[in-house]
Amino acid sequence: MSFSRREFMQVLAVASASGMALSHQDLLAATPGAGERLYDLPKFGNVSFMHFTDCHAQLLPIHFREPSVNLGVGDAVGRPPHIVGEQLLKFYGIKPNTAQAHAFSYLNFEQAAKTYGKVGGFAHLATLVKQIQTSRPHALLLDGGDTWQGSATSLWTRAQDMVDACKLLGVQIMTPHWEFTYGADRVKEIVEKDFKGQIDFLAQNVTTSDFGDQVFAPYVMKEQNGVKIAVIGQAFPYTPIANPRHFVPDWSFGIQDENMQKQVDEVRAKGAQVVVVLSHNGMDVDIKMASRVRGIDAILGGHTHDGMPAPVIVKNGGGQTLVTNAGSNGKFLAVLDFDVRGGRVQDFRYKLMPVFANLIKADPAMQALIDQHRAPYKAKLEEKLAVSEGALYRRGNFNGSWDQLILDALMDVRGADMAFSPGVRWGTSLLPGDTITYEAMMDQMAVTYPATTLNEFTGAQIKEIMEDVCDNIFNPDPYFQQGGDMVRVGGMTYSCSPKAPMGQRIHNMRLKGQPIEADKKYKVAGWASVQEGVQGTPIWDVVSTYLREQKVVKQVKVNAPQIVGMQGNPGMAA
Ligand SMILES: [Zn+2]
């Protein structure tokens, strides 16, 4: 028997939609990963949630390399999400060299990415959502935020492409973070016009700075199969620190445990038998919050981009709370099923499914919408800037090859001794030999505050900046972890001791082998300053200029610090 690839995909889609077993072994062999039954999801319980988060405006399938360094400190040592590579596979019982191993780890990234193909894409996600709905028509679709930012088209349409795509996908509830970087007025416009009557935009921890009034609804109550449920929204608590304050000048943020407890108590009093928090706290913060607030059944979390195959179960005064994190860039869809009887949750099932574009057909209506939004920008998006000899990726605590390329461009074009690039976690990956298109470049830098800067800093100032950012990542109390990964540093080498106290983590700073001097001034290039009114060439002009000159980008040499005192930490590849 022979099947064309197209017929095979149709058989596969039908088989998984109906729960029918695939019987043709030759078919299973035809598309890598198909034999793993990634999308088999037996019915369970009477209340269900679908959850994706941090898609960062990636409407098309992409590659995304998971981190090889994700260190935990304090209580988080060796606890998810601070486990990488082989340790992660072992912890979750995932077989090496499988589609799942590729989805959840960085292992063998380049080869595995070729074998299993691209991940994500809203048209493929839409098909998967529809499949889940056939067995769970009651399931709610939740979007954890960082949805409107991260691509050229989202920036150029001021999020309209993502807003339209989320509406078509059938998102019912969302909570924000990078959304705020379009400014308070644009957020309000979308929430009050586009989302009205369809998507609840929730944030219990965003209030007006003057009287402390809620800016958005804190929660929404729904019903599934006669069971009353509540979803409470938790926006990124450090938005005005990690991103420019001037975009949201009149609003206050923060973690606000006490207000969260108040909301939980209120929805329980109104009869909610299931309480879920849709959170953009980041996983360590969610785990701490789950230990302090009673009465939450699950925190469906985002922000830290951790693709966690199973929830962390946190015991607390109210019983237990499941804490999950659903990865990033459209790569995963989570399904959480609850068995609710006698007025409370009795049991649960959870599955985080990787969205492999080769295994799931594209939904035609979603594909048409995406094509329509891209059409006006097609030529610009497809411009070929250069070819990369090595893989380009970003994610990881300290540096990635994409970041290094940005740093190299900044130092070269702006004539600096060294460069800083923000440690954001978004940004897609490219494989060796891939063309760097304008679109792929913009995936790394599509922000509303793109100005590049050239400053003279003393050695003492440079150390102070680095110590400050380092504490945002490695403060042992997650409530003080306020940003993304470590600032990426070009030109200067250094060592880092994550376990040391604040102000004592950065050592051995050197430029071209010479120690950095406290009083000496150095030319430092950077971009994405959170200060208001910063002027400068946008980062995309700097990097595209550099790439057009290079034509071929050789293997970039990633400048990563020497890590001190973390031997044996499972958050670091051996
Ligand atoms: Zn975020």
Spell out the blueprint of helices and strands.
Layout: H1 5-18, H2 25-30, E1 47-52, H3 85-92, H4 99-104, H5 109-116, H6 122-135, E2 140-143, H7 152-156, H8 160-169, E3 173-174, H9 184-194, E4 200-201, E5 207-208, E6 219-224, E7 227-234, H10 239-242, E8 251-252, H11 257-269, E9 274-279, H12 283-292, E10 298-301, E11 312-316, E12 319-325, E13 332-341, E14 344-354, H13 364-374, H14 378-381, E15 384-388, H15 401-414, E16 418-421, E17 435-437, H16 438-442, E18 452-458, H17 459-474, E19 488-490, E20 492-496, E21 506-511, E22 514-515, E23 521-527, H18 539-550, E24 552-553, E25 562-563
Parallel strand pairs: 1-2, 2-3, 3-4, 7-9, 9-10, 10-12, 15-24, 16-23, 20-25
Antiparallel strand pairs: 1-13, 5-8, 6-7, 11-12, 13-14, 15-17, 16-19, 18-23, 20-21, 21-22
Bound molecules: zinc ion.
Model description:
The chain has 574 residues and is an alpha/beta fold. The protein folds into two domains: 5-62 and 118-370, Metallo-dependent phosphatases (Purple Acid Phosphatase, chain A, domain 2, 4-Layer Sandwich), CATH 3.60.21; 382-563, 5'-Nucleotidase, C-terminal domain (5'-nucleotidase,  domain 2, Alpha-Beta Complex). It is 30% helix and 21% strand. The protein has 18 helices and 25 strands. The strands form six sheets. It has a six-stranded mixed beta sheet. The chain has a six-stranded mixed beta sheet with strand order 6-7-9-10-12-11, with helices on one face. Strands 18-23-16-19 form a four-stranded mixed beta sheet. Helix 8 packs antiparallel against helix 13 (364-374) and helix 15 (401-414) crosses helix 18. It is globular, with a radius of gyration of 23 Å. It starts with a helix and ends in an 11-residue tail after the last strand. Mean pLDDT is 94; it is low at 18-23. Bound molecules: zinc ion. Zinc ion binds at residues 146, 177-178, 236, 280, 303. Residues 146, 177-178, 236, 280, 303 line the site of zinc ion.
